[in-house]
Amino acid sequence: MSWENNVRKVVPYVAGEQPEGKVIKLNTNEFPYAPSPMVATRIYDLAENEIKDETSMLRKYPNTNSDNLVNALSEVYNVDRDKIFVGVGSDDVLALSFLTFFNSDKPVLFPDITYSFYDVWASLFKIPFEIQPLKDDFTINKEDYFKTNGGIIIPNPNAPTGIMESREMFEEILKKNPDSVVIVDEAYVDFGADSMLPLIDKYDNLLVVQTFSKSRALAGLRIGVAFGNTKLISFLKDVKYSFNSYTINYPAIEIATAACRDTDYWKETVAKVIKTREWTKTKLKELGFEFADSKANFIFASHKTVPAEHIFTALKEKDIYVRFWNKARISNHLRITIGTDAEMEELIKSLKEIIENYA
């Protein structure tokens, strides 16, 4: 069929399984607790007062700047409004950032073990790229990013390893690359890592991207945010408005605003996840697992004697889902999302049985 010659063909990103029914789902790094109670309050208010008759805001286009949400982010993070960009999840923000800032014939640089959407976007948008191998301990070799490039993107903490790199390392990379935009993807930063957000006024080539999908328990709502200097954000908005001016819907803006303002609940529940993560580290070590010190809401672990694929399959038979990739360098690792205390206790119990029964 001749028309196929004009089709853009890419190998798509493969998301984690979304099993139905009563399972323990520890495979997609979702938050184990409900969103802020202010979210429910705002939803009820929308249903009762704003979307039921001719006054409904749903019959109108949403605010293109998502002003209510941007105002809340500005207040909570103490960042000027014109240094904030919001989109439909951090994937939307990152994809638009690839389109906006990685526009040269020089390769974009990112780690070989990292978020597997990066090479998909680069291929989709026909952006040249080079992957930079992590060290044996899965940390960044900063010198790999001191060469000619068309842009850099590094998650911190990295996924799927959970490893946090220092602010000092990122400053070195920024200083060595004044002519490239450096994107730090901070999807998991709230679980114990140092954010690069304080550096956006110091480095005009730094873009910091975060999400409401993890620590704010709103993966189903799809809200992402970028912080950067005014010029970076202006360029990002130009591309967004050339693609779709009305990306975030009105209820999502209002619900995310409510969640953003409830900082007490956010801090309380994040602290619970961190506490559970540290308990899980101890129990995994007792069972013979090895892993780097995670600062995310997951642990990337391998067992000393039992293959990861065997554990993955055995857990699945017990309706416990974790993430496994049959890829070079990580084929003997499992990424285990931190769930509730009860879920992690059941995981440890099941792992103990699987390891004891392995022959």
Can you offer a commentary on this structure?
- With about 350 residues, the chain is α/β, with parallel strands linked by helices.
- The protein has ten helices and 13 strands.
- The strands form three sheets. A seven-stranded mixed β-sheet has the order 2-8-7-6-5-3-4, sandwiched between helices. A four-stranded antiparallel β-sheet has the order 9-10-13-12, with helices on one face. It has a two-stranded parallel sheet with strand order 1-11.
- Helix 2 (about 65-75) packs parallel to helix 7 and helix 8 runs parallel beside helix 10 (about 340-355).
- The longest helix is centred in the last third of the chain and has 24 residues, at about 265-285.
- The termini are far apart.
- The mean pLDDT is about 95.
Comma- or semicolon-separated keywords:
single chain; 359 residues; alpha/beta; seven-stranded mixed β-sheet; four-stranded antiparallel β-sheet; 10 helices; 13 strands; 37% helix; globular
